[in-house]
Amino acid sequence: MYTKNFVNPCPDWATALLNGFSQVLLLRNPLCGLCCLLAILLTAPNLVGGALLGALAGLLTAQARGYDRADRQAGLYCYNGVLIGILISAVLPWSAILPPLIIAAGGLSSIITHQWRKRGGKLLIAYTSPFVLLGWATLLVASPSPSGFVEADPLYALARGVGQIFLLDQPLAGLLIIVGMFIVNPYAAMWAVIGSAIGGGVALLTDQAQAAWLGLYGFNGALAALAFSRQGEKPWVTVLAIALALLLQPLLNLMPIAGLTAPFVLACWLMHSGNHFWQLLLRRNIWRLHN
Predict the structure, then answer these.
(1) pTM, whole model, 2 decimals?
(2) Which domain of life is it from (predicted)?
């Protein structure tokens, strides 16, 4: 049941917002969120306002509608707002309508996230799907400028692959984000870098060198790695999730607009669904053996 009044406010709004930045990486830690915010501020200062406005809109919407206080404090209603705020700021020219548009998109992302959490169950977890849906709607009316040319540098490409999670193409951004992840979970940070490396390698093997150096094949692999490595899964499960995300990316690249993080989301859904049906099959076989 929701209320239109601002009841049960978050005990610490700053922490909730910073947790929202870290939840983009499926982690909860204000220091990690601060590193992500610094990455945006230092490498793309023109996008930081949109990121903060989107996060704040998501948090205020969740609070106004009475969503669970602990979930709000954890940043679960901010992270999609962070991403859509960055995207809108990046692809649309500045105008007086831009801030209200980001506020509306950030608030809507919070509502979609809540409904998805209620109805998606354990198989269709929301992840960044609200951002993907709102991002596609944005890209249909926007004309994003093409990515510039970058020199071949494997280390920079690794960092860019992580930075592109936040739509950032500067190596410093990726490095700051990796530091933030390392603060929370060094194992997950290692896997995120591995996911970025595998994605870059796949791009090179398929003659997409610029995509590799820009990190455009790294971020979905990094996110898939984060989704499963942080759950303590066996390494082969994490590698399979990365592989699925990278297999789906060329298919989504056939769309007239960017796939954004859809390959990561779809790969996770396939992994969860596959595991669910495998467990059902095992239980059925065990039941048959005992009957």
Answers:
(1) 0.91
(2) Bacteria
